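Justification of resources, computational component.

The compute hours requested in this renewal are based largely on the per-chain cost of generating structure records like the one below. Each record pairs the submitted sequence with a full structure-token output. That output is archived, and it is also reused by downstream analysis tasks.
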Amino acid sequence: EVTLDVALIDSLGEQTQAALYQIVREALEEAIRRGPPSRFEVAATADVPGTLRLVIRDDAPTERAAARSR
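The structure output for this chain reads:
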């Protein structure tokens, strides 16, 4: 299950959008490498004017748990 709440990103510049896309892509790749996850969530908010908060969550095993299962 993938949940995206990123409408705020549409108002940002093209280079900023590309950078955020890269961050999310790398986070998803890492979660898949550890897991894979059954849930992956991305949310972009701007609680304070002039700031952006990007939250990425997944339920893939942690690095430590993944290492123990090898």
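The radius of gyration is 14 Å. Helices lie at 14-34, 63-68.
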